[in-house]
Amino acid sequence: MSVLTGDRIRLRELREDDLTDLVAWWQDPDVLVAQTSGPMHPRPADAIAEQYRLWSRNAGTDAGFVLVSRDEGTVLGHVALFGANAHNRAATFAIIVGPPHQGKGYGTEATRLMLGYGFGELGLHRIQLTVAGFNERAIHTYGKTGFVEEGRDREAVFRAGEWHDQVRMGILSREWRAAVA
């Protein structure tokens, strides 16, 4: 298996025809509420498509890939490592799995692949993320893949009239290497 291929999925470059599903999922209010910490402003499809193109340029140490099933090539989601700092060798992780494909372990497998890619191919020292405290499924997945909760920004996310914590999580290359050894 290559660094971008798992048991059931593979990560590949963004193609223009992938944008139909990716943009539709980003516009889904149930997905948007879990993905953003700011106001849930509806965005035009062309602006969302351009954002995916930017995330998927794969220039320098930033990397974005479309998550597809190995057997049929079905688009399942998108993963990215962005904001990498060459001096500190740290990047931020982001993932979106389309609603029809959630709860099937694809996010866990994609996260593990991206950790391997970030530490093994890009030479990162640290991968970090933030997630809304109410997104318990994501927090569980990140924990299963080795991320450690490093702190909470108390009541930092205002959603649907209520305040929620924002959770900061991270994993270091030595922790990842120990887990896969």
Write up this protein:
The longest helix is centred in the middle third of the chain and has 16 residues, at 106-121. Helix 1 packs across helix 3. A hairpin with a 4-residue loop joins strand 3 (75-85) and strand 4 (90-97). This protein has a seven-stranded mixed β-sheet, sandwiched between helices. 33% of the residues lie in helices and 33% in strands. It contains six helices and seven strands, in the order E-H-H-H-E-E-E-H-E-H-E-E-H. With 181 residues, the protein is of the alpha+beta class. It has one domain (9-180): Aminopeptidase (3-Layer(aba) Sandwich). The mean pLDDT is 91.
Number of domains: 1
Counting DSSP H or I runs of 4 or more residues, the number of helices is 6
Low-confidence stretches: none
- Quote the beta fraction: 25-35%
CATH domain class name: Alpha Beta
Helix coverage percent? 25-40%
Tally of extended strands? 7
Structural class: alpha+beta
Q: Strand order within the widest sheet?
A: 1-2-3-4-5-7-6
Distance between the termini: 17 Å
In CATH, the architecture is 3-Layer(aba) Sandwich
CATH topology: Aminopeptidase
